[in-house]
Amino acid sequence: EEMWRRGQRHRVLSLLEETVPLAAESPEFALRAAQMSLEMGQFERGRRIVENGMHLHPHSAGLWALHGRCLLASQRIEEARSDFHRALSYEPQNAALMEELARLYRLEGRPNRALTTLMSLEELYPPSEMPSQLLFEKGLVLRDLSRHEDALVCLRDACRSGTANPGMLAELARYEREISAQVARRPVR
Fold it and tell me: pTM of the prediction?
């Protein structure tokens, strides 16, 4: 890690890559080496490292999830989704992975599947401890389903939390303007 912080990234990555086949007892070296490759923008190298690790650790949820991210970076969406599902079969309570899968469904234009996944994910958290990013993602999915009132509630709740980022606030403001414009265009009865 120290060498990585000092900028010796290629050297660290090469050392880790050499260690992966020797570390048959743990997938951690493969995970770290692949993550470093991805951070450096070397997606094919990262995918190759993950696949080598997967041969040694075929039941590693982390490796399957990371392989899915590599595939996603290469726009191989169906294969990525399949890998995310495989990872979840090994680690069904992985909240980060469930959220990532829901986001993928939303981006694929499958809001019903995204909402189902998010609702399963919500069950992992006490109501008052729902992460703002999760509420925000749910709001986006509800927007895609044209459930505007529910979407606004989720987006506003997410933005009220102390962890809302500027992008979330900007998206909420844009959506509120869009809804206001729609209401203004409706004929008066």
Answer: 0.76
Tokens of 183: 């209401």
Give the whole-angstrom CA distance, residue 73 versus residue 78. 12
> Tens digits of per-residue pLDDT, 52-106?
888 888 999 999 999 998 888 888 899 999 999 999 999 999 999 999 999 999 9
Write the pLDDT tens digit of every residue in 37-63: 788 787 887 888 888 888 888 999 999
CB 132, CB 168: distance < 8 Å:
yes
**Alpha-carbon span 133 to 141, nearest angstrom:** 12
Angstrom distances, CA of residue 114 to CA of 69, 106, 139, 166: 17, 6, 11, 24
CB-neighbour burial class of residue 131 (10 A; exposed 0-12, middle 13-18, buried 19+) = middle
